[in-house]
Amino acid sequence: MIKAILFDLGDTLISEESVGDEHMPNAKLEKVPHTDAVLKRLRGKYKLAVVTNTSTSKENDIKLALRKVGLEDYFDAVVTSVDIGHEKPDGEIFCEALARLRVKPTEAVMIGNRIKTDILGANRLGIISVLFKWNDRYPEEIGSPLEKPTYTIGSLERLPRILSDLERENENSRNRFKVSKQ
Ligand SMILES: [Mg+2]
């Protein structure tokens, strides 16, 4: 059963172009299309966290930035690499997010725009991974089976559908288990 969704920040929730070289809370900040609608649908149903590699920003800086674009209240946890001392794809940063949300890796879905950080890190821990490819900023290639996302989407709008498909699959396998036990 899926209980939590982990979101990358740059080019997953907030456009990297709108941040530029500015310190996160001082930047212009533009949301990626459909963030509000999608987060509104997921909030309450799942625990939500931001898991982000930052160069200087700490949890409070990211919370300020999220507040500036009206997204702060959707999230139960904000985990930055600067605070943790490890960057994605390192397992530590994902484990910290899972621990704060009190869920197991298999109960979580990670969504992000980078194969070498978001997808690889999630896959190594057995977290379902969603590659969100909506622009061509990072031309990355899948280099190994562990870098292969469970799902790939081009719009955030597709995420709720993936989650409901996963729920249906879980439901079906529970029912199959019940039948086979009889
Ligand atoms: Mg990113």
Structure description:
- This protein has 182 residues and is an alpha/beta fold.
- The protein has one domain (4-181): 3-Layer(aba) Sandwich (Rossmann fold), CATH 3.40.50.
- The chain has seven helices and six strands; from the N terminus they run E-H-H-E-H-E-H-H-E-H-E-E-H.
- The chain has helices spanning 16-19, 35-42, 59-68, 81-84, 91-101, 115-125, 159-181; strands at residues 4-7, 47-52, 77-80, 108-112, 128-132, 151-153.
- The chain has a six-stranded parallel sheet, sandwiched between helices.
- Strand 4, helix 6 (115-125) and strand 5 (128-132) form a beta-alpha-beta unit.
- The longest helix has 23 residues, at 159-181.
- It is globular, with a radius of gyration of 16 Å.
- The two termini are 23 Å apart.
- The structure holds magnesium ion.
- Residues 8, 10-12, 112-114 line the site of magnesium ion.
Summarize the structure in short:
This protein has one domain (4-181): Rossmann fold (3-Layer(aba) Sandwich). It contains seven helices and six strands, in the order βααβαβααβαββα. The protein has helices spanning 16-19, 35-42, 59-68, 81-84, 91-101, 115-125, 159-181, and strands at residues 4-7, 47-52, 77-80, 108-112, 128-132, 151-153.
